[in-house]
Structure formats: C-alpha cells, structure tokens
Specification:
The chain has 114 residues and is mostly helical. It has one domain: Four Helix Bundle (Hemerythrin (Met), subunit A). It is built from 7 helices and no strands. Helix 4 runs antiparallel to helix 7. It is elongated, with a radius of gyration of 14 Å. It starts with a helix and ends with a helix.
C-alpha cells in the first residue's frame, strides 16, 4: 500500500500533490495508485519502437501531465525530457530514457507493495 511517507522517500512532492486534491489524502493516494498501475509506459515504449513518434509524443505528454499533477517528480522529470525530444521528433535512441522511466516506475511499484 502506498503512503505519503513512501512517496516522500521516492522523491514525490506530496504537499503539492495533496494541495491539488484539496488536501484529501485518500483521494490523492487513490490517484497515485491509479497512476502506478497505468500501462501507458509500455504503450509509450512500443510506440517508440515502432517509430510512431506522433503517438509516442501524445502518450508521453499525457503521462507528463499525470505525473506533474500528482507531483511524482522522478517520473515527471523523465517524461518531461522524453516529451521534449518527441515534440521535436528527434531521430535518436530513446531507449535510455524509456528504460529510466520504467526503472523509476518499478521503484515506485515496489514501494507500493512493501
């Protein structure tokens, strides 16, 4: 189960996230749990592997918004960088960024399970 303390250890700015949820901790944690189970990172990786940078940009941009609103800073920072590269449709190897994003999500998932 995810808690405010675990999110703080992860690097989330929980005070900001809570304020966006009218300081309703249970609502905030429910939204975070929903983001943790989100399979969109896999979708994003597949879109990039297929070379569909338009779809990948849309997915990355949506994830960035979710992570920003929940103040999941480690995830936000990676998706922000990824989104900007995709916005420019850069022809580059996105693997290091998608792997970093997946690893960060796995870290958060492990905290939720502990």
């Amino acid at each position: 189960m995810i808690t405010i303390e675990k999110l703080n250890r992860f690097g989330a700015k929980t005070e900001e996230g809570l304020s966006r949820c009218l300081n309703e901790e249970s609502f905030y944690l429910t939204l975070v749990e929903s983001a943790i189970t989100d399979e969109q990172i896999n979708t994003l990786t597949e879109q990039i592997q297929k070379g569909d940078l338009n779809a990948a940009f849309e997915t990355s941009h949506a994830l960035k918004g979710i992570y920003a609103n929940l103040s999941l800073t480690p995830l936000y920072d990676i998706t922000h960088e990824l989104t900007e590269h995709l916005r420019a449709r850069e022809n580059m190897d996105y693997t290091p960024l998608t792997e970093k994003l997946s690893a960060s999500m796995k870290e958060l998932m492990q905290l939720a399970e502990a």
